[in-house]
Amino acid sequence: MSALASALEGLAVDFEHWRQGTIDAFELRDRIHEFHNKTGRRIYSFHVGAEPRLVVAAAVRDGVLTREEVGDQLFSELSAMIEALGKVGGGAGA
């Protein structure tokens, strides 16, 4: 699962709490705002500011790109980076 997908799961829980009446619309708005200003920006900054090979390696690790889509040669070149990212990030995304 990508970092964005994982992060959105938490926001989905917040929406469910709002639907159930556990939190009000103002609290939900605050949580959306916090997501946008912190989590969303962190994920965006990684993908925009990182070295392109690192972004591709993270996408392969997260299942966003397949080995076939990347190609055998590039996959081979990135395999150590993909493995290291899996150990550092636990496979949960950037």
Task: Write a structural description.
The chain starts with a helix and ends in a 5-residue tail after the last helix. It has helices at 3-19, 25-49, 52-62, 67-70, 72-89. It is 80% helix and 0% strand. It is elongated and about 50 Å long. The protein has 94 residues and is mainly alpha-helical. It folds into two domains: 1-49; 51-89, no CATH class. The mean pLDDT is 87.
* Percentage of β-strand residues: under 5%
Tell me about the biggest sheet?
none
Intertermini distance = 10 Å
* Gyration radius from CA atoms, angstroms: 16 Å
Number of helices, where a helix is a run of at least 4 consecutive DSSP H or I residues = 5
If you average the pLDDT, what whole number results? 87
Total beta strand runs: 0
Low-confidence stretches: none
Shape: elongated
Q: What is the H-and-E element order? A: HHHHH
The helix content is: over 70%
Count of folded domains: 2
- The secondary-structure class comes to mainly alpha
Give a nutshell description of this structure.
This protein is mainly alpha-helical and 94 residues long.
Structural descriptors:
elongated; 94 residues; mainly alpha; 2 domains
Task: Detail the topology: elements first, then pairings.
Elements: H1 3-19, H2 25-49, H3 52-62, H4 67-70, H5 72-89
